[in-house]
Amino acid sequence: MYIVRIAALVGAIALCSCGGMMDDLRPSGADNSQTANADSAGGTQEQKAPDFTVSDTLGRSVNLYAELDSGVTAVVLYFTMWCPVCAAHSDHMRNNIVPQYPNVKFFLVDYVSGTVPAARDAQVSNGYAYSAFGVLVDSSGAVLSSFGATMGTTVVISKTGAVTMKEDYKDGAALKNALAKLL
User: Which residues, 6+ apart, have CB-to-CB distance to 3 below 8 Å?
Assistant: First the structure.
């Protein structure tokens, strides 16, 4: 019982020492993200998307700007770990968003499998072998890093190369809104 009281006291002291903690419990809802210089390259909204070339799961080389030059309205990147949350997001996109935007190229970016064969195995076992999504293999994590992404990050890149949306996937509303603005 003594140990439980000590642990509770230590926990209370730790929580009390967190400056500004109440703001975390009652957030203002204000967007505190910093604006980016539109002329600079980077993965932040309004910046010019960093170019990249990676393999897809069929071993083909995919270049972002070549995809944008192919006549598409936009490219959407969804960073996946093939976990249940990622599967729910990509299933939702596949069923509810992809069919509405036939002139948009959708890619799942696999940054965890490490190799093309391992990523292909993950793609097939998750039911994406014959889907509208291309699967990019970011074995070095360079694409993930250049966009400052993590699991579930969704990025919309316009045909001019501008990052028009970057956020963690929620219910698809922000993605639909971003794509509708590009039509």
Answer: none
